[in-house]
């Protein structure tokens, strides 16, 4: 019984948070690319030194909107510590695919488009635009991801896209 309790206390917290950093690359402009579980990366993350410490600055879209947000203190400090060299990237860590969750989805007035907030492991949120258009007689669904989010695994990108469309299809099709 004691061994089971030790196992649960040591290993379950790591299973609850699977969004791991598998790489960090400094860009020419001084910003960073952060790679998560070798599945996707976020480009143009800046580490800004303030009088009270360092602050991560997430990239903005061309239009000025922030479509990427770190929503957990654990991930925020993990990224900062990795960039500052305090924590090392463990490339041998086996990452679980992040748990996806729709935080919010709302219809854009009089269109077949939905603005959707998707969470990866309750730690990183992205804003996506899901829409439908006609091509001949066929309905085509598409998902527009933030410009600084790049998928490294095309199968994982397809999984995320399918997840988003599955959870927003009724809104897109005006059934809600």
Uncertain stretches: 2-16
The separation of the N and C termini measures 50 Å
Radius of gyration: 18 Å
Which structural class matches the secondary elements?
Answer: alpha+beta
| Estimated helix fraction | 25-40%
Tally of helical runs: 3
H-E string: HEEEEEHEEEEEH
Oligomer: single chain
**What is the overall silhouette?**
elongated
Largest sheet: 5 strands, antiparallel
Mean pLDDT: 87
Number of strands: 10
* Strand residue percentage: 35-45%
How would you characterize this protein structure?
- The chain is α+β, with helices and mostly antiparallel strands.
- Helix content is 26%, strand content 39%.
- The protein has three helices and ten strands; from the N terminus they run αβββββαβββββα.
- The strands form two sheets. Strands 1, 2, 3, 4 and 10 form a five-stranded antiparallel β-sheet that branches. Strands 5, 6, 7, 8 and 9 form a five-stranded antiparallel β-sheet that branches.
- A hairpin with a 5-residue loop joins strand 6 and strand 7 (113-120).
- The longest helix has 19 residues, at 154-172.
- The termini are far apart.
- Residues 2-16 have low confidence and may be disordered.
Structural topology:
Blueprint (H helix, E strand, L loop, with lengths): L1 H15 L4 E6 L5 E5 L3 E11 L2 E5 L10 E3 L2 H11 L16 E8 L5 E8 L3 E12 L2 E7 L4 E3 L2 H19 L4
Antiparallel strand pairs: 1-2, 2-3, 3-4, 3-10, 5-8, 6-7, 7-8, 8-9
